Amino acid sequence: LARLVQVKDPSTTLALEVAAGSRLYQVVVDDASTAQKLLEKGRLTQRVTIIPLDKVYAPSLPSSVVNAADRMGGGKAKPALELVGSADHLQAALKYAFGTSLVCQDAATARRLAFSREVSTRCVTLDGDDFNPSGLLTGGSRPGGRCVLATLHDLAAAEARLDAACAKLASIESQLAATAGTQAEYNRLRQEVSLASHSLSLLQERMACSESAQLAASVAALSTELAESKQAAEAARAKSKEVAAMSKNLEREIANFGKEQGARLQAAKEKLKAAKAGVDRCRKALKAAEQQVAMANAERDAVGEERVALQAKIEAATQAVAALKKEEAELRESTATSRVAYEGVVAQLDTRKKRMQESDEEIAGHRQTAARLMRAIQELDVEMHKIEKKSKAIAEHGTSCAEFAAKVEKDYSWVSVEKAGFGSGDYDFSNYDMRKSKRDYAEAEGRCAELKGRVNSKALDKLEKAESEYNGLMSKRQIVDNDRQCILQVIEDLDDKKKVAMKDTWHKVNGFFSSIFTTLLPGAQAKLVPPENQTFLEGLEVKVAFGGVWKESLTELSGGQRSLLALSLLLALCRFQPAPLYILDEVDAALDLNHTQNIGSMIKAHFPQSQFIVVSLKEGMFNNANVIFRTKFVDGVSAVTRTVTQRGRAEQQQQKGRSNVVAADTRRVLGNAN
Fold first, then answer.
1. CB crowding 646-657: b at 16 or more within 10 Å, else e
2. How far is 174 from 219, CA to CA, in rounded Å?
3. Pick the residue with more confidence: 108 or 336?
4. Rounded distance between C-alpha atoms, residue 408 and residue 410, angstroms
5. Angle formed by the axes of helices 13-20 and 91-98, to 10°?
6. Cβ atoms < 10 Å from Cβ of 432
7. Per DSSP, which regions of 212-260 are E strands?
8. Residues whose CB falls within 8 Å of the CB of residue 275, separated by 6 or more in sequence, listed in order
């Protein structure tokens, strides 16, 4: 059911989880027949409760209770059913889980509504405190981790984001696939543009060298020459007018002056004749120029028509080039966009590959570190064996020396008498003068020579024997003293190593203790510390903190918390030197469901190489079990059934050799249990 619930306000997830309780973990089916088939043929590996939508009891709060709660709570209380949502056909399951509860913002409002006559309904606060009209109040410390509904809400949001990302990735991939064809089309069009540009350049070169271009140049030259001829014709016309005016003037002068000016008239006639001849030449030149202009105009018209045709071709080619360039620009933009998206996807892929490579390197480094530590441990074990062997040899040598000293004391009674004075008095040789002793020895020899014959020689033999025995004893004493110093040094070294080993053991057990206690009771901390003004060799104390506040005494803890603390300390000691098999008998008897589940998770996480046989009456312990043994009373006889969970089968197939956590569920049977 928890996976089908959609929480509208994430801040109410804890209250909704408390209101629904274990119903969140029950299985929803469409009808009772499906539930029956699931129970008979579903091969269920654990005990489940099924909610058939056609048979489930779906209560809801009366409108009068809702109105009274809204009025008395001042808007701080809402029905739990209004805070969740789901598909329409699942409303019966939602009413079954949330229909009879109110969610309040604080404890005061919940207490007032739960115990009022008008409401008298179960109320749950946002902090998870449960107020039941029957008088049962539930609350206090809760696990530090997030609740299931909050986790599922975040999971649904993450899945939505993942679906969006997958859709975006599919879109990008489809764009890339489409871009592959566009790229080919772009290359083809680009090649066509290149060919058209080359054709245009060749056409322009041909136009520059063609006959039409030469005709156009000739037309330009003829136009220039025509303009010059027109200017010359205008000048000739002006000169002709001037000559005509001059001839008229001369004729008038001839008429006026008569014979007197015959010579002048003759000259004027000659000038007139010459002018007429010039006019005829100009007319001929003008006529020839007009003919050339006509020919040039005809050639110009032909060239103009050819130029118009060529300009039309040029304009068509230019338009085609512009269209191709525009299409090329669009294809470039599309290709650039696709390339950016492709590069983004490639960058993400490279980042993930790099992260995978870094993870592989870290794993290889950790493996090398583990191998190095194992070699160091083996070397320390060898060194420890050597030290133990050497210590044993020293102890044996000390024993032999002690036996020899006891024998000397037994053989020579004076040794035990004078033993207390060794190293002082007559037996203190620290200030012994050797030269004086030699002189005394020489004098004694001389005296012995004088006394020879008067002294008992056997006494001298006895003296020499006693001196030799004395010297032997002194050398043995020196050996014993040296051995004693060696033994003391070994004892001191062993004490130092013992302190180091005890300190290392303390730190490791403290780390296991803190980790296991935090796993069993999230949000709490525990540690082993020496008493004030004392060292760890004199003893250790257990300190516990909740929410970062350290408790002064363990008497402040509840019974369940003390049970978890004791269990954490015992398992931390076991974790230091793990055993292959552990048996736990109803260690969760005083704990609630969450803490029971935490024990199973802790065993799975901290004891991967050990096997546990756990006797429990709570289902929360079975979630991490590989094999479950159930004991029940059948026809007056106790029967045991064995079930391999899905988790156990998966681990047996995938990870052979890992530890198995075996949970045994012992059902108390009334009647003849003995």
1. ebbeebeeeeee
2. 62
3. 108
4. 5
5. 90
6. 8
7. none
8. 240, 243, 246, 247
Question: In this predicted structure, what is the pLDDT of residue 661?
Answer: 39
In one letter, which amino acid is 457? S
Q: Does residue 229 sit in helix, strand or coil?
A: helix
Distances (CA, A) of 414 to 406, 408, 417, 469: 13, 10, 5, 12
Report the alpha-carbon distance of residue 94 to residue 26 in Å, rounded: 12
One-letter identity of residue 320: A
E strand segments, 147-293: none
Contact at 8 Å (CB) between 228 and 296? no
**Alpha-carbon span 28 to 87, nearest angstrom:** 13
| Token pair belonging to 278 | 């010039």
| Per-residue model confidence (pLDDT) at position 489 | 92
* pLDDT given for residue 141 in this prediction: 60
Q: Is 34 exposed, middle or buried (0-12, 13-18, 19+ CB in 10 A)?
A: middle
Residue with tokens 């060799």: 537
Q: What is the mean pLDDT of residues 129-152?
A: 74
Mean pLDDT of the region 151-175: 76
What burial class does residue 290 get, using C-beta atoms within 10 Å of its C-beta: 0-12 exposed, 13-18 middle, 19+ buried?
A: middle
Which residues are paired to 130 by β-bridges? 124, 138
Per DSSP (E only), the strands in 463-610 are 524-529, 541-546, 549-550, 581-585
For residue 663 the two structure tokens come to 């949970």
Dump pLDDT digits (tens) for 381-410: 888 888 888 888 888 878 887 887 788 777
For residue 482, name the pLDDT band (cuts at 50, 70, 90): very high
User: Could you read off the pLDDT of 276-296 as tens digits, one per residue?
Assistant: 777 677 777 777 767 776 776
Could you report the per-residue pLDDT of 338-376, keeping only the tens digit for each? Answer: 777 777 777 887 887 787 788 778 888 777 887 788 888
pLDDT digits (tens, 9 = 90+) for 576-591: 888 888 898 888 887 8
Assigned token pair, 194: 């290149």
Positive or negative: CA dihedral 551, 553, 556, 562:
positive
Q: Cα 445 to the chain's mean position, in Å?
A: 97
Residue with tokens 């003829």: 222
Crossing angle of helices 13-20 and 148-209, in 10° steps, is 130
Contact 358, 189 (CB under 8 A): no
pLDDT-wise least confident of 75-89, 248-262, 601-615: 248-262
Phi-psi region of 120 (alpha: psi -120 to 50; beta: other; left: phi over 0): left
Q: Identify the residue with better confidence: 218 or 3.
A: 3
User: Tokens standing for 464?
Assistant: 């020499």
Q: Is 60 helix (H, G, I), strand (E, B) or coil?
A: coil
Cβ-contact 53, 90 below 8 angstroms: yes
Using DSSP, state whether 598 is helix, strand or coil. helix
How far is the C-alpha of 71 from the C-alpha of 63, rounded, in Å? 12
- 3-state helix, strand and coil shares in percent for the chain, rounded to the nearest 5: 70, 10, 20
Cα–Cα distance for residue pair 313/419, rounded to 1 Å: 137
Residue 119 contacts residue 113 (beta carbons within 8 Å): yes
Q: How far apart are CA 231 and CA 627, in angstroms?
A: 124
pLDDT in tens, 498-521: 888 888 998 888 888 888 888 888
Q: How far apart are CA 317 and CA 315, in angstroms?
A: 5
